[in-house]
TrEMBL record:
Record has Metal-binding as a keyword: yes
InterPro entries according to UniProt: Aldolase_TIM, Ribul_P_3_epim, Ribul_P_3_epim-like, RibuloseP-bd_barrel
EC nos: 5.1.3.1
Source organism: Tateyamaria omphalii
Binding annotation for a divalent metal cation: 37, 39, 70, 176
UniProt: substrate binding residues: 12, 70, 146-149, 176-178, 198-199
Family to which this protein belongs: Belongs to the ribulose-phosphate 3-epimerase family.
Record flagged with keyword Chloroplast: no
Protein name listed in UniProt: Ribulose-phosphate 3-epimerase
Lineage: Bacteria, Pseudomonadati, Pseudomonadota, Alphaproteobacteria, Rhodobacterales
Gene expressing this chain: rpe
Function: Catalyzes the reversible epimerization of D-ribulose 5-phosphate to D-xylulose 5-phosphate.
Tree of life domain: Bacteria
Molecular function GO labels: D-ribulose-phosphate 3-epimerase activity; metal ion binding
Length: 229
């Protein structure tokens, strides 16, 4: 995984057909997705349950690019090796998930993955100030985690603060929740480069009719890249 600051669109399979993840991942990649975002929820850290490492391992052979795993679980540490075995490229833990995020990030890198830290909307940028040399990605939640299809919460001031904090380090800023062609330019302008989108990518399409996925991805990317022209 090489670092670059171009806009990357990461469809969240939370909005895909749960009975057909492999084909859904292949379809969005064929339609231009850069990364695949995989939401792991435990019914404890967030009020919803999705799936765990076994499902990630089953999905992995269907992804040629980056598998970006967003853990909404607590605790995190007992499961890090299982997600490494499952083939996660990026493993992101929430700063709110426990008292020892520093140890967690060390363990993620130690297991050979890129380390991400996520912040809930109520958590300030300062919560991750001491972690800048330990992370490869900061995920700014623009919804309260747990469900797809929620309304975007404006976190542009936090994104700008994180961009300043990161400086010239090779650290991605990922935005997760309510990203669509209207909100993408706001977050791209503030300094984000990885845009997660679930409902805004998968709406209107299916594995049998994947062209809408491509149109949705192109529209989000064009809106985000438009802020630089
Ligand atoms: O982490 C998440 C929710 O906790 C999802 O990645 C996110 O909500 C994406 O879905 P949408 O684009 O529909 O908001
Ligand atoms: Fe997510």
């Amino acid at each position: 995984m090489t670092f670059d600051r171009s806009i990357k669109i990461a469809p969240s399979i939370l909005a895909a057909d749960f009975a057909n993840f492999g084909a859904e991942c292949a379809a969005v990649e064929a339609q231009g997705a850069d990364w695949i975002h995989v939401d792991v929820m435990d019914g404890h850290f967030v009020p919803n349950i999705t799936f765990g490492p076994a499902t990630c391992a089953a999905i992995r052979p269907h992804i040629t690019g980056v598998m970006d795993v967003h853990l909404m679980i607590a605790p995190v540490d007992p499961y890090i090796d299982a997600f490494a075995q499952a083939g996660a490229d990026v493993l992101t833990a929430h700063v709110e998930a426990g008292p020892h995020i520093h140890r967690t990030l060390q363990a993620i890198r130690g297991a050979g993955m890129k380390a991400g830290v996520a912040l809930n909307p109520g958590t300030p940028a300062s919560a991750v100030a001491e972690l800048m040399d330990m992370v490869d990605l900061v995920c700014v939640m623009t919804v309260n985690p747990g469900f797809g299809g929620q309304k975007f919460i404006d976190m542009t001031a936090k994104i700008s603060a994180l961009r300043d904090m990161i400086g010239d380090r090779p650290v991605h800023i990922e935005i997760d929740g309510g990203v669509d062609p209207t909100t993408a330019p706001l977050v791209a302008k503030a300094g984000a480069d990885v845009l997660v989108a679930g409902s805004a990518v998968f709406r209107g399409g299916s594995v049998q009719n994947p062209d809408p996925y491509g149109e949705n991805i192109r529209n989000i990317r064009a809106a985000a890249e438009g802020v630089w022209t």
